[in-house]
Amino acid sequence: MSFKEPTIAWIGTGVMGAPMCGHLADSVGAVRVFNRTKSKAQPLLDQGAVWCESPAEAAAGADLVFTIVGFPTDVRAVYFGKQGILTTLKQGAVCVDFTTTSPSLAMEIDEAAKQRGAAAVDAPVSGGDVGARKAQLSIMVGGDAAAVDRVHPLLQKLGKNIVHQGPAGAGQHTKMCNQIVIAGTMIGVCESLLYATKAGLDLETMLSSISKGAAGCWTLDNLAPRIVKRNFEPGFAIDHFIKDMGIALAEAARMRLALPGLSLVHQLYVAAAAQGEGSSGTQALMRALERLAGQTADA
Amino acid sequence: MSFKEPTIAWIGTGVMGAPMCGHLADSVGAVRVFNRTKSKAQPLLDQGAVWCESPAEAAAGADLVFTIVGFPTDVRAVYFGKQGILTTLKQGAVCVDFTTTSPSLAMEIDEAAKQRGAAAVDAPVSGGDVGARKAQLSIMVGGDAAAVDRVHPLLQKLGKNIVHQGPAGAGQHTKMCNQIVIAGTMIGVCESLLYATKAGLDLETMLSSISKGAAGCWTLDNLAPRIVKRNFEPGFAIDHFIKDMGIALAEAARMRLALPGLSLVHQLYVAAAAQGEGSSGTQALMRALERLAGQTADA
Amino acid sequence: MSFKEPTIAWIGTGVMGAPMCGHLADSVGAVRVFNRTKSKAQPLLDQGAVWCESPAEAAAGADLVFTIVGFPTDVRAVYFGKQGILTTLKQGAVCVDFTTTSPSLAMEIDEAAKQRGAAAVDAPVSGGDVGARKAQLSIMVGGDAAAVDRVHPLLQKLGKNIVHQGPAGAGQHTKMCNQIVIAGTMIGVCESLLYATKAGLDLETMLSSISKGAAGCWTLDNLAPRIVKRNFEPGFAIDHFIKDMGIALAEAARMRLALPGLSLVHQLYVAAAAQGEGSSGTQALMRALERLAGQTADA
Amino acid sequence: MSFKEPTIAWIGTGVMGAPMCGHLADSVGAVRVFNRTKSKAQPLLDQGAVWCESPAEAAAGADLVFTIVGFPTDVRAVYFGKQGILTTLKQGAVCVDFTTTSPSLAMEIDEAAKQRGAAAVDAPVSGGDVGARKAQLSIMVGGDAAAVDRVHPLLQKLGKNIVHQGPAGAGQHTKMCNQIVIAGTMIGVCESLLYATKAGLDLETMLSSISKGAAGCWTLDNLAPRIVKRNFEPGFAIDHFIKDMGIALAEAARMRLALPGLSLVHQLYVAAAAQGEGSSGTQALMRALERLAGQTADA
Ligand SMILES: NC(=O)C1=CN([C@@H]2O[C@H](COP(=O)(O)OP(=O)(O)OC[C@H]3O[C@@H](n4cnc5c(N)ncnc54)[C@H](OP(=O)(O)O)[C@@H]3O)[C@@H](O)[C@H]2O)C=CC1
Ligand SMILES: NC(=O)C1=CN([C@@H]2O[C@H](COP(=O)(O)OP(=O)(O)OC[C@H]3O[C@@H](n4cnc5c(N)ncnc54)[C@H](OP(=O)(O)O)[C@@H]3O)[C@@H](O)[C@H]2O)C=CC1
Ligand SMILES: NC(=O)C1=CN([C@@H]2O[C@H](COP(=O)(O)OP(=O)(O)OC[C@H]3O[C@@H](n4cnc5c(N)ncnc54)[C@H](OP(=O)(O)O)[C@@H]3O)[C@@H](O)[C@H]2O)C=CC1
């Protein structure tokens, strides 16, 4: 990698993928791009990226292939589909999946890549669209050390806290750990705000008492104020969070691990989605609890 | 209060009460003290506090009466018992209960105090024994403004973040909001660590990836490392936390409010206590989940 | 009891108490009656019962005192109040409480009765208002054998399946066991019907497949058809069921026993009550689940 | 079907499949059989069944193809695998899947069968191995009316309560409704027995009070006595029940339906499996709850 820039392919130019791909293009030059909806790749194409008609076409001849799509089924399609990456991935290439997806699927991709003499890295991120734009993502990395070392310089263009967690799947498992904690903080914060409402407290005054101590958390600092202002815009959308919790629960069941807390929160989010909040931010769990309570926190 | 120091009574000199009472004694001079077990008051007596044989005796003639005992039944005994505060509380006095107890009981005390021409303030605290010793408690205050104003200068000797939350009971309700959030963070953090264990991750490496982002919380920063080191010493004991969650759930049921998340965590803590962890720190929820999982995180 | 009829007092002439008292009056003659609302006792008075102005007055001189009021606080008032039974209960008397109430309270009454040289029996019932009218109640009996033997002939006027379960409180504990099973069947049946609705099944056809096999239960036979017909009339009212589950959970917490299933169902019923279903029948749990699902089963 | 017996293929000769296939063979003569482990088909072969080397070979030329394997992945392999039924299924044939599997998968099979000019029926059963041997299964049927009518005479050789529930998938959905109710009765009965144990009741005496009334259910009549005798043999194995609940929850999440009760029970069963009870009968949920309680019901 010292005297020649690698050829790079990028699949998935949505909310996260577009700015991330932009950072790489800035530093390594022209990137081969594919996205389901071409228009979302247009700004990148305008800056010199090369359009490809399929993941297979993008991956053909590439040294490094980056993907960040939506759901595990999308990942499966992009890698294992008829026009998927694994039909053309060249020997010695490394593919990196940034999508939050199933650890088992990450291991499956790793196996398949190895059978072609290539390698796979799973590298889910956290930090949201803001982190993606500012290149300040936290990146949780799984895969063989050699492959991880090879892509590390490029990951540094995208994030700050880049940690190699272990073999293929370990990045995804770590992201699941992250989401499990968030599920707990979300239910705690929403139930707390609802209790406060029923008890007749002033929500902001209540928050001023509790947010600096042992109850302190990112959710309390960042999402509770939005709930108080009845702002349920995403941030991170409920449908994506349901996907993530579903993955964690499926992995846990596979590993024979009971997670009663996560399971309950997952159900309540499914209820929120059933009530039409799938595209709202995760803080809209509040609304599902309010419907259960027959009362809203802004009454 | 300008030209004459008030006469102060203090009931309850346990882990929290002893250092708190010490701070007041430092600034206002001799305090009239009662505690169920006299020996725990001895250090204060050695510094000049005056021993009384009952809450009633302590409160007799006092301008301000402070209490911090264990459970709501203790509070009830101290105020409403045959030798209770309300048998001697003088007109114009203010009593302040720092115990984490039932908001309904706080309102009951307030009513009873008013019938004697006195006033009551509920002022539960957070910050633990460290906060008590350093006079850095967060204090959540409920009661009539006049009474709260009157005791405010003394509360400032004990804590930093002192917020008047509303009428009698509002301090306790705010403390319940605090505990509800903590219940969520505890289940999230413990299930996350357990998942990580089953998935074969290195726990500290995993924590280094997730603790600075959206999963960030006091519990992750302070209790997760203890769990990793298999340190289940209290901090805050499970039996007390079960009491607090029980109060919150009882109040919620009274207000007709469903809190499914808190309710589940409460049950899991009851299980932990059944397994002998009642005196362990709240992070020992981990152990109950490990027994459910048939696996420990230090395996 | 062979040559002289005992003097009988009866407190509580509501939905259950009125017909039960009527059966006793039919067989043993005039009964001394008290109820909070006198009008509800009028039909009994018209048939020869003697009105008393308080539980104390009714119990004065009685050999046997029967009570069936609503909530544990009512039981406490009726026994321990200023005009309560225990102020006048004569030596050698037996009091029988049919109310579904706290096992701990039953033990407390037993102790207090013994201190007066009397005895107490707890005898909660099941079978509903129909069972009460038809004298076909199931009666779960706790108390000392001698006291239980003494009242057994009269219990036989009220029910069929009369079982002595053990010492004071054992009747109430058995009733709790009954309610715990019902909580499980209720959530199972309601979630099943909701799933069927979402899946587009015809509810009655679905029920015809499942009701005779391993899913078979009283709730499926008796309440599922009411839900299908959108009949949410009580039967047994949600507010009473919430009381019962609250008692069971409080006893369980006291005994350090986690009951995660009961706890969840309790919360969902609290939600139902918050949504205005407190006086509906227990099958109206369906409505709380429907609100969660954003869909009704009759859509 | 009037003048010529249909050619029949049967795949899956396990606990359920072997006796069911035997009944058909008795009435229609030689059956073409495949099973993963040939030895389990030997008794049928001894009675004249014809061994085939794959599902494809069995289905080739068959008029009716019956399957009853274990898990959805097995069903997928048997139908869609390289040697699967759908590679040889002839025009006009009908395949019937008795496996308890995913409704979505049943619809997928139906689509694929139609593309070959054939038809598919989903027909999960209940009644256990006893019902299979006695030909007294309850059969929940989904599929097009013509196909269902065609196989109905043969289903009558296997069961009694045969109900056509609707289009493809409706049979499986109905079976899910059945399992959802059972999940509720299981948690109710186990928690009730555990409560009774902690409360010091005699379990059989307790059961004699509650089993005839509103708490009455198949689980109480059939499994509670086994628990009391510490008999945790299957009946229906926990691993299969976890599979079924997992299918129901996945379908529910897909339909955006929250089932908090089922979800909790599912988690507790996962815990039971983690503790080594996967092959025990479903009543061994008791053991997971006992571990949580730190106490066994036979203490
Ligand atoms: N948003 C956030 O804050 C965070 C998101 N994540 C995770 O990152 C991933 C991406 O999220 P986000 O960017 O918000 O989602 P988006 O839906 O905005 O982006 C996904 C992109 O992938 C494309 N895509 C999906 N399937 C295919 C396919 N088969 N072939 C080609 N392109 C495909 C989509 O195409 P099309 O344009 O046609 O829809 C879309 O442009 C998710 O897994 C999410 O959970 C992680 C951390 C934070
Ligand atoms: N209904 C049912 O299907 C079943 C009920 N039960 C249990 O039986 C008990 C009674 O139920 P039910 O009859 O339906 O309830 P009701 O409310 O109809 O009857 C309760 C009666 O008690 C009276 N009462 C309450 N407090 C006092 C008091 N302090 N002094 C005198 N009388 C008092 C009430 O008076 P007032 O008339 O003024 O309200 C009322 O008449 C409950 O604990 C219930 O859980 C058990 C099995 C089935
Ligand atoms: N047992 C019960 O009480 C009830 C069971 N059911 C359901 O019926 C189904 C069958 O249960 P049961 O008979 O107990 O289970 P078993 O495990 O005893 O039988 C399943 C059979 O299917 C065979 N099989 C699995 N995969 C394949 C494959 N790819 N190709 C060929 N054969 C295969 C197995 O082969 P091998 O011999 O190699 O393992 C085994 O003989 C399950 O879905 C269960 O949930 C429904 C109601 C009651």
UniProtKB/TrEMBL annotation, chains A, B, C, D:
Q: Write down the SUPFAM superfamilies for this protein, in alphabetical order.
A: 6-phosphogluconate dehydrogenase C-terminal domain-like (SSF48179), NAD(P)-binding Rossmann-fold domains (SSF51735)
**List of catalytic residues:** K175
Residue ranges of domain 3-hydroxyisobutyrate dehydrogenase-like NAD-binding in the record: 169-288
| Coiled coil stretches, renumbered | none
Q: Which Pfam families match?
A: NAD_binding_11, NAD_binding_2
Which residues belong to any copy of the 6-phosphogluconate dehydrogenase NADP-binding domain?
7-166
Show the InterPro entries listed in the entry.
6-PGluconate_DH-like_C_sf, 6PGD_dom2, 6PGDH_NADP-bd, HIBADH-like_NADP-bd, HIBADH-related, NAD(P)-bd_dom_sf
The superkingdom listed in its UniProt entry is Bacteria
What is the name of this protein? NAD(P)-dependent oxidoreductase
Species in which this protein is naturally found: Acanthopleuribacter pedis
Taxonomic lineage from the root: Bacteria, Pseudomonadati, Acidobacteriota, Holophagae, Acanthopleuribacterales
